[in-house]
Amino acid sequence: MKRLLPLFLVFFLPFAHGFAQNNDFEKELYVGVGGGALMTSVDFVPAVSQKSFFGIHGGISAKYISEKHLGLILEMNYAQRGWTEDFPPESGFAYNKTLNYLEVPFMTHIYFGKKVRFIINAGPQLGFLMGSSDNMNEALAADIAAKKQENPEAQIGMQYSLKPRSFDYGLIGGIGMELKTGAGSVVLEGRYYFGLGDIFESRRLKEDFFFNRSAHRIIEAKLSYLFQVK
Fold first, then answer.
1. Nearest Cα to Cα of residue 41 among 86, 3, 10
2. 76 forms bridges with which residues in the sheet?
3. Does residue 210 contact residue 45 with C-beta atoms inside 8 Å?
4. For 73-126, how does the pLDDT look when each residue is reduced to its tens digit (9 = 90+)?
5. I need a surface site. Which of 86, 134, 141, 200 has the fewest CB within 10 A?
6. CATH assignment of 5-18+35-228, given 3.30.565.10, 1.10.10.10, 2.40.160.20, 3.40.50.2300?
7. Are 218 and 176 in contact (CB under 8 A)?
């Protein structure tokens, strides 16, 4: 419950401004598309040595400016997350896992400026696993098989066969710049996602699972184009 509390607090932040809306303000509604690159890793307990994993993300978005300097953003994005393990060079081992998600962030939008705007976005994000894939080289696969043959009772290589959970949740926030033109708005933004949910079932729930913690940590760069419909 302690891990869920920040999510609940941020989720209700977008609704707080509704009690103080200015009826004289000319509201704005935008829709558009966006995408970019992301750098992701996983917070594992026990720790797993990792290199940065690079993926892509993109999708559609809607932004509603309900009053001066304040609004809401709702998006639906495809994102390619995962991790790459960092083995000693002399081992010859290699492994990475790709996790494909449908993401739905719902963020409070704060901006300053008119034609050129400084923006801040923050809120909860839900993720739905669409599929996953593993890439293990022959050297690592052979080493795991040999160790299992020597000691069949040991949990050798168990972490590579775990099934990821279908649902993820966390908090996302970003800062950037928006340029408003006659043809629409161009937005460049950097974001950080802090996963609150675990990718795999944890040992806190079942004694025979490998990880106590396995949560996403993601840095994103996003370029969006939005056009005003109201």
1. 86
2. 60
3. no
4. 999 999 999 999 999 999 999 999 999 999 999 999 999 998 999 999 999 999
5. 134
6. 2.40.160.20
7. no
